[in-house]
Design goal:
This protein is α/β, with parallel strands linked by helices and about 280 residues long. It is built from 9 helices and 12 strands. It has an 8-stranded parallel beta barrel with strand order 1-2-3-4-7-8-9-12, surrounded by 4 helices.
Length: about 280
């Protein structure tokens, strides 16, 4: 197993925003006071066209990170080398500070579900994830970050808790953590575990980025939709997260029913308030 650490290009700090297509022109015209943007890498891997041209224009104005959903790090399928080749070309082109994906699987037998599916936290699945992260890092020539999932059902044959699984994956692969605080809260409410105990079980030095987003109440469970403002319990957990890990660069996500840019910027400014307090 390769545990080499790659140094990111540049740095990000403060509260950034996820770049969405309906905000391109506003950003280019007004150059808002946002410290950095995160791009969904799968939307820019065609190699040409207007989306990548706009991404490059914004990259020239702001630091960027890349966040993807297509590595399928938890799948028993071999790593998709064609996908990784296109991702490598995008990474070389945009020079992001961080590249990230999820502790999840999205494919089996070469068929893609277009959804982030959970995996049992067993020694066998851990080895699968570690091997794929290690291979991905070798192919990209840099460290990646992996994000903790939100979940709604628990497997009855896991060997360890999620934070233990994530910690061991990070230690054995050399990757970093993209800590989604909303996902921690959603899963903790759905499964009845302590969100604070989860956070305290993670290695502080490996948490490189934080995500915040909104969930939806679905009767007996919470659903991670990324289509609402960040809820107050998540802000409270975020404050505790910063007390544990320091002023980690934070990204506000909003993927469905995307509002006007000023609404997202207001959420980022609220996150910045908490970051300033943490400093």
């Amino acid at each position: 197993m390769n545990k080499t650490q790659w140094t990111p290009t540049g740095e990000v700090s403060g509260a950034g925003l996820g770049l969405r297509s309906n905000h391109y022109q506003h950003i280019l015209d007004s150059k808002p006071d946002v410290p950095w943007f995160e791009l969904l890498s799968d939307n820019y891997m065609s190699g040409g066209g207007l989306p990548i041209a706009r991404a490059e224009a914004i990259r020239d104005l702001y630091p960027v990170t890349l966040h993807g959903v297509g590595m399928s790090l938890g799948s028993i399928d071999p790593l998709n080398l064609e996908y990784m080749k296109r991702l490598k070309l995008l990474v070389d082109r945009l020079e992001p500070v961080y590249v990230s994906d999820h502790i999840a699987w999205v494919s089996v037998d070469g068929k893609y579900t277009h959804d982030l599916l959970p995996l049992p936290y067993t020694l066998e699945s851990k080895q699968v994830v570690v091997d794929r992260i290690s291979q991905a890092q070798e192919l990209l020539g840099r460290q990646i970050l992996v994000e903790n999932p939100s979940s709604y059902l628990a497997f009855n044959f896991s060997d360890m808790d999620e934070q233990v699984f994530l910690t061991e994956v990070v230690a054995e692969s050399g990757c970093g953590i993209l800590l989604d605080v909303n996902n921690v809260y959603v899963s903790s409410m759905n499964h009845g575990f302590s969100a604070e105990a989860y956070l305290m079980g993670l290695p502080k030095e490996r948490v490189k980025e934080i995500h915040l987003a909104g969930y939806e109440q679905k009767g007996s469970y919470l659903f991670d939709t990324h289509g609402h403002r960040v809820h107050q319990p998540v802000w409270e957990l975020y404050q505790k997260t910063l007390e544990l890990f320091g002023a980690v660069p934070t990204l506000v996500e909003w993927d469905t029913d995307v509002p006007e840019f000023e609404v997202l910027q207001g959420e980022a400014q609220k996150a910045q308030f908490y970051l300033d307090k943490a400093r």
